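At this stage, I put together a protein sequence along with its fold in token form, as given directly below:
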Amino acid sequence: MTDSAVIDIRTVTDDDLPAWTRTWGNGYLRSYTESSVDTIRSTAGRDRLIGAFDLDRCVGTYRSSAQELTVPGGAVLPVSAISKVSVAGTHRRRGLLSRMVAMDLQGAFERGEPLAVLDAAQYPLYGRYGFGPATAMAWFEIDVHRARLDPRRTADVSGVLLVDAREYLKTAPAVYERLRAVQPGALRRDEQWWLDATGQRPAGPPDRPEPFFALYLDPETGEADGLLTFTAEETWGSMLPRSPLWIRDLIAVSPRAESALLRYAVTVDWVTTVHLPYRAPDTLLPLCLGDPRAARISALSDYMWLRILDTPRALSARTYGVDGALVLEVTDPAGHAAGVWSLEGGPDGASCTRTGRGPDLRLGVRDLASLYLGDDSATRLAALGGTEEVRPGALARADAMFRTGRRPWSPRAVLGPRYQAGAP
């Protein structure tokens, strides 16, 4: 057995990509192909790839990318988005993941990225590195027959227009950008993302079926206010249709657009079940149905995890629900976010500076991450033992300041062939 101290943790070179891709595929139960190497190579120029190497053998993978995150109030912060993390089963419990995380977070801190984000495939892994769950996600299955929507009521879907992939691609990115500007938890979707989502990337799989695409055009202005991508499968049983429909992306900048697009999906001919993934738990969509109980939650989970690296910059960037002031003593074993910080903020902006005053609250960097976008409350975190109220009233003040009227949401879309509840 190789001593873990001599296993090399380093930036991946082009020569390393085949071995790195194979190790990542093994970790995620995906078959190795030359095209998968080409896909990784096509993004390597804008990604940071790290690998763990035991002599000439890759035994660990890690990727981070430059991203942007919308925070409460509409500010956009640069973040490091982490993905493709794996350690070979033959090399676990040797600290390899810890070394890769430490290398990447130090690099993010030095690049001036105040936050790091990831979608945690396993809950227990990332809290030890200062990440905390910052958004949640609900998956719904909608029983069409119980939804009490009459497909003959075309007024319910007025403004919905079916389009092809090319027309969709011309309009959809601008719709998403309008949502991203105001949605806490939203990440950037770049040009390559949209090419992949619409099957327009030249190197894409040739046999991949094209989804259906729809836009919502405001009847009064003619402006596109929503977008919908879905796939469906014609299925029959005993001369009765039993077709499922899978929504892959649904984005809207108004409740009217959101309602019309969902109502359209639920009234497509022959469809008996609509699968609706990746929604905020407080989504309004079930209430757009004639019977909201027709939308059953099939999965409910934490989703995007967040790690604060620059406390004053992160806390100064967002707005707060009420005017208030807090002194926060933040512990961080890695040191990036640690300190005693004076936060003053409100609906119009905030400032955060280091202070020598005594704290109102003591909390770890993981709990601060869960508070940051407004999805959790200081009172809940204190009940779990991770946050300590030093001055009476500080928990209630923190709740009033950090919580948002609607839960943060990080919009996701199903791009690949896999479509199952809870899949990252």
Observations:
- The domain at 4-113 is CATH 3.40.630.30 (Aminopeptidase).
- Residues 230 and 247 are 4 Å apart (CA to CA).
